[in-house]
Amino acid sequence: MIPRILILYYSRKGSTAELARFCARGVESAGGEAIVRTVPPVSTNTESKEPKIPNSGPPFASLNDLETIDGLLLGSPTRFGNMAAPLKYFIDTTSKVWIQGSLANNPAGVFTTSNSLHGGQETTLLSMALPLIHHGMIWAGIPYMEQALSDTRTGGSPYGASHVASDWNKELSKEESTLAMALGKRITWLAEILANNQPK
């Protein structure tokens, strides 16, 4: 069995997308299939048109993407200590998936980015975990046996992977990329174990 892990994120300036890429590398290095999807921006302008599908990058997510996966990695930039509105908007449309129980008993992890060191990363990670718990998913963070968690001076926490996208840390640090890969590996490993041990 090859675990199918959906990496679903919103990124405005590219930092969260870069973190998603390292999560995907972790999934693939653990023998899983990384399915990368994003969500379109939302606007309060009622006359705005539907967002165009981008010519490059991952396609927009659909509810069908959630119905056939073995694990989920959810990512968003920090917005006042919370997930960004476009990701929340998509999650708010998943009632059908919740009723079906499609995500129940599957592992999930979360990742985020912020422009400042104390920019609300951990509360953002928690805000993304809450709807996943409602879906019956099993939230998995990053254990401290990952040495990069103790070594990091930028992003990364036991709640999930993160990146401080500041002027002095424009690219992912070694520890940030290592922790994103570790999270991808862990979700893939857990997905395989859980898929083989589902209650009958």
- Our measurement of the CA-to-CA distance between the termini, rounded to an integer number of angstroms, reads 18 Å
Question: From the coordinates shown, what is the CATH architecture?
Answer: 3-Layer(aba) Sandwich
- Please give the radius of gyration in angstroms: 16 Å
Please report the total strand number as a whole number: 7
Name the overall outline.
globular
**What kind of sheet is the major sheet?**
7 strands, mixed
In short:
By secondary structure, the chain is α/β, with parallel strands linked by helices. The chain has helices at residues 15-29, 63-66, 85-91, 95-100, 121-134, 147-151, 174-195; strands at residues 4-9, 33-38, 71-79, 82-83, 107-114, 138-139, 161-164. The two termini are 18 Å apart.
Description:
This protein has 200 residues and is an alpha/beta fold. It has one domain: Rossmann fold (3-Layer(aba) Sandwich). It has 7 helices and 7 strands. Strands 1, 2, 3, 4, 5, 6 and 7 form a 7-stranded mixed β-sheet that branches. Helix 1 (15-29) packs across helix 7. The chain is globular and about 45 Å long. The two termini are 18 Å apart. The mean pLDDT is 92.
